[in-house]
Structure formats: C-alpha cells, structure tokens
Write a structure and sequence with these properties.
alpha+beta; six-stranded mixed β-sheet; 28% strand; globular
Length: 153
C-alpha cells in the first residue's frame, strides 16, 4: 500500500517548565499522547521505545509526510494535548535533525538517515535555544537536514 509507513523518526522530550506549572509527563505518558493521537491517522504511527534518550518511535509514509510535516504534526499533537488539559502560556518546539553519521548502536537507537526530534516544552524558547547553541549547531548543516517548529499554547 502506498501510504504504509516507510520512514522513521525518534522523539525525545525536554520538559523545561517549573514543576507545578503543568503536569510533567513521564516517558510512557509522553509516548501515549502520540500513539493515541496517531491511531486513527493514515500513514503515521507512534510507539514507546526503550532507549536512554529517545522515547517515541514515529513511523510515517513518505508519500504522505515529509520529515518536517511529521515534526509539525508531533508539535501540534503535544500542544493540543496540553490545551485540552487547560495548559497555557508556553511553547512546544520540535527541533529536528537528520542523522548523517554512523549509529552508535543498533535499533532502537537513531540510525543514519533517520530524524531525531527533540520535543521541548518551555516558557522561554529563545533562552532554551541559546542554552543548547541551536544557531551554532544548525549553521553548518544543510537547510533540508534540520527543522524547528514552534507551537504557542
């Protein structure tokens, strides 16, 4: 079938909000947000994975999604989940990068040619990006190998 998932990205979660401002999702809860939201969507699915850094494996069909549009859907999904729970006043970011170097381990680690996406919840997106040196990290990379998506809540 043409829209069967044939591409893979992995999501991590960076919760950069103060405890008590909003419920900090544990790894399983974070994964459940995406697996439930994508359950009825054609060409995309999400599952929890056991990895020290990565939490969710997203498989998507290239005929239906680009890596950036899948990343947009991920940011939108978490933002909508938070809006449904009456959260407000912060930003969900999806910071994506294409893995171009050999992997350091087998699956479920990020493999060469796959996208790693850090999903960030923060009130100060610019400060967060400065802390991780986003501009410096992405400056030398081709534009089609990175993306940044912001969803304000």
């Amino acid at each position: 079938m043409a829209d069967q998932p044939d591409s893979r990205m992995l999501l991590s979660h960076n919760f950069a909000l103060l405890e008590g401002e909003i419920h900090p999702l544990n790894r399983a809860e974070f994964a459940e947000v995406f697996s439930q939201a994508f359950a009825d969507k054609a060409g995309i699915g999400a599952t929890y994975i056991e990895n020290p850094h990565w939490v969710v494996e997203v498989r998507y069909a290239k005929v239906r999604y680009t890596a950036k549009s899948a990343g947009e859907l991920c940011a939108e999904t978490l933002a909508n989940y938070r809006k449904d729970s009456k959260a407000a006043g912060f930003t969900v970011m999806a910071l994506g990068g294409l893995k171009t170097t050999p992997p350091t381990g087998g699956p479920p680690s990020l493999q060469q040619g796959e996208w790693g996406v850090d999903v960030v919840e923060t009130k100060q997106p610019d400060e967060f990006l400065d802390e991780i040196n986003w501009d410096k990290l992405t400056a030398a990379k081709p534009a089609d190998s990175v993306f940044r998506i912001d969803q304000s809540i």
